[in-house]
Amino acid sequence: MPLLAQETDLLSLPAPLLAFLAIWFFAVGGCIGSFLNVVIYRWPRGQSIVSPPSRCPRCGAGIRTRHNLPVVGWLLLRGRCYDCQAPISARYPIVEFLVGLLFLLLALQSLLPGGPWWLLNEPWRGLPESQWPCLAIAYSYYQTLNVTLIAAAYIAWDRQRVPWKLYALALLLGLVAPLFWNEVRPGGVTPQHGWEAARLGLWHGAQGALVGGVLGFGFDFVRRVKMRTGEVPGRLEPALVTCGLMLGWSAVLIIAAASAVLSLLWLLVTARRWAGACSAPLVGVALATIGLTLCGRLFWEAWQPVASGHPVIVLVGGGGLLMLSAVLQRALSPLPPPHTSE
Ligand SMILES: [Zn+2]
């Protein structure tokens, strides 16, 4: 007997079980957020993310296990080092809280009636029990992408170079998972024949990665002329290649267009500060992807017929919007401060 039988509504579960599930998903997300903090700080600086264990950057004292608990640890310490009272940035618990919340929300979205929005062809209620592992795979698939983009946005915000290896796990999942189960991509269909499924999985992934790569390359190229650094901080190209491979071309187009609008607004709101200029497009990509993951169904049902009906018009329009945003951002961006001219 499965935990949730087909006809069982999630909300009809006993309240304590529901609360336990909610806390569990939030806690798992919080722990991953905690690990993400380590990745965000150490990877761009060429340090190992495994050792040494977390230490206070001022006095060097090791962080005790109970103070390492996501969010709770920071609250227990009231935002100060236990040993030397040096302040600890509120950003750490904020990242942990946000990733915890994201894990909880996607679990609710996937398990509530109606089910995961990307399974448009088969209503979730009608899926056989054997599809439960698929739901777990899809959940991990989308969260890997979301978490990767959150880390990339924060690294760019710190004006650090986002390493390609940050995207490695998401790229690997985007390449391999659809070979076996193409429906993991929004609107994907898995035919009965195994080889045909693998061919479709590869083909849709290649289309998405190509569209994402061209859009990202064009955007970075236009922005770089003004920034005059060897490499644009917070490059879009790897992020959009990853989104395209994992979600397909019509989703990456929407993400790029949403990012274009969001980053332009952000640049205006932050009074054109350099950190905002660096990271705004990547922050936009992360927000658009999370938004699409959490509440894409309504939007997707309207968008997908348009995208597949008029692919050329949609591609030219979306690409044009992104390039227009890049030109405007280039005009609005401040020049880099002298000390980051490497
Ligand atoms: Zn200390």
Description:
With 342 residues, this protein is mainly alpha-helical. The chain folds into two domains: 19-112, no CATH class; 122-342, no CATH class. The chain is built from ten helices and no strands. It has helices spanning 15-42, 72-76, 91-111, 132-157, 168-180, 194-227, 237-247, 249-269, 274-309, 311-332. Helix 1 runs parallel beside helix 4 (132-157), helix 4 (132-157) packs antiparallel against helix 7 (237-247) and helix 8 (249-269) runs antiparallel to helix 9 (274-309). It is globular. The site of zinc ion has 8 residues, from loops.
Radius of gyration: 21 Å
Q: Counting H and I runs of at least 4 residues, what is the number of helices?
A: 10
Oligomer: single chain
| Number of E strands | 0
| Beta-strand residue percentage | under 5%
Task: Work out the count of structural domains.
Answer: 2
| Biggest sheet statistics | none
N→C terminal distance: 61 Å
Fraction in helix: 55-70%
Which class do the helix and strand fractions yield? mainly alpha
- State mean pLDDT (0 to 100 scale): 82
Low-confidence stretches: 1-8, 123-127
Give the tags.
342 residues, mainly alpha, 2 domains, globular, disordered N terminus, binds zinc ion
How would you summarize this macromolecular structure in one to three sentences?
This protein is mainly alpha-helical.
Please describe the topology of this protein.
Blueprint lengths: L14 H28 L29 H5 L14 H21 L20 H26 L10 H13 L13 H34 L9 H11 L1 H21 L4 H36 L1 H22 L10
Helix pairs in contact: 1-3, 1-4, 3-4, 3-9, 4-5, 4-7, 4-9, 5-6, 5-7, 6-7, 6-8, 6-10, 7-8, 8-9, 8-10, 9-10
The site of zinc ion has 8 residues, from loops.
